[in-house]
Structures are given as C-alpha cells and as structure tokens.
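#struct-pred
JK: can someone run the complex with fe (iii) ion? inputs below
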Amino acid sequence: MKLIPLPAFKDNYLWVLHDGQRALVVDPGDAQPVIAFLQREGLQLEAILVTHHHADHIGGLDAVRNATGAVVFGPAREQIPGTLARLEEGNEITVLGRRWRVLDVPGHTAGHIAFYCPDVDGTPLLFCGDTLFSGGCGRLFEGTPAQMLASLDKLAALPGNTRVCCTHEYTLSNLRFARAVEPGNQELIQYTQRCQERRDREQPTLPSTIAQEIKINPFLRTRMPEVAQSALHHAGVTSQDEVAAFATIRQWKNEFQ
Ligand code: ZN
Ligand code: FE
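RT: done, structure tokens with the ligand placed:
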C-alpha cells in the first residue's frame, strides 16, 4: 500500500492511500490535486473519508464524488453537504479490504471523527484530521479543553507505532512553541533538527507516530511535571488540575508569536 500526502492550499495535506488499483482519499478540501493524481496513477477511488466540516477539508468533496462515484464516509454530527454514510464511535467500515474503526474526537469541532486501521502492511494507521498535529493540536473552535484532552488521550492510547496522518504541515511552528514550553526536552531538540532537514529538502514531516508525539508534543504531555510546571509558571497561578494545565498550554499557544 502506498500512502501519499498530496499538498493543497498553503499547508494542507490530502492523504491518499492506494494499492496500485484502488484508492481512498481523506478530507479533499480541493478536488483538482486529487483527480489529477488518480488519473496520473490510473487509480479508481473507492472511498472518501471526511473528518470534520471545515471548508479546507470538504471544499472538493462534491467534485471528487461526482468525478469518481466514490462512497463518502463522514461524521454523524456535522453538517456535510450531499449523500454520505454518517459515522460515530463504535462504527467500523471496510475500505481497501481493511477494517477501519471510527473514533469520536471532539474539540477542534464538536463532531470531529478519526479513522483508525490496526493493520496496513503490518502497521496501524490513523487519519486524525485537525485533532492531532505533529508537535501540536487543533484549535478549540467548538469544543472544550476537557473534550480535546479526552480526545487526545484516546489517540495517545493507540499503539506507539501507529502512523499519524495529520492534515496540516504545521510541524516546525508547533515545535518552536513546544521548545518554549519544554526547553530541556532533548528528544524535542533532535526531532526539530530532523524535521527542519526534511523541510529544507521540501519533504513532508508527516506521517508522525504516536510514540514520537508522546515524546515531544506538549498537548500529549500536559501531565508531565515539566509541562505542568511550565503551564503554572505561564499562567501565574498556584494550583491546577490536568484540564486547567491543558487549557493554559492551548491558550498560550494561541498567543505565541
Ligand atoms: Zn479544521
Ligand atoms: Fe484544517
């Protein structure tokens, strides 16, 4: 199976997974790169997976569906135009001959879902939309900090070797913030170097892995003493629970220059 991040807009990735004949695409915010890729590679699109309702994730949905006849799978609790199979936690779908589990991951949007397959060529694979980024997480447009923390905990509990397919190339700017939160994290410094080298060669930093993110992503590390301490220091308060620590780090990131 081949896994390809098609670049779109300024920093989106439209993920395509294919076996040389049949393909799936995730969050086609723009139709043109998807249709061009399918034609060039001679692929038949089997399914479109949608994680949430934002325009940069569904803008090309109708055009890709009309051009290919692919079935669309999307979140049960969001406004997505057109015919689609509406999914929520506990549902499973079969795409490219594999079982995919649906996870509810509210926070960035209220009905955001993720798609998880335990075995793609021997390794688990996760399409997480704008919930988890390498070194960061999505902004809380519709959900609460408690919801987002629970969603990220759910993703962090997946196997460490799970490949994490995020929908934006935000890694380097996320890591700049992560270093402000945790200046002493050596793994973070080394990971930043590796990502910088990839960007210098105009390569994507993604997919990441769950194990990697647990080592470097401040939003998966809000219970680590260094991160909680840093949140305390930033907010200037004396006691915090884990949701308050998470909310502080998220708010700090929003203001970070
Ligand atoms: Zn979004
Ligand atoms: Fe997005």
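RT: quick notes.
The longest helix spans residues 186-200.
The domain at 2-255 is CATH 3.60.15.10 (Metallo-beta-lactamase; Chain A).
JK: thanks, will look after standup
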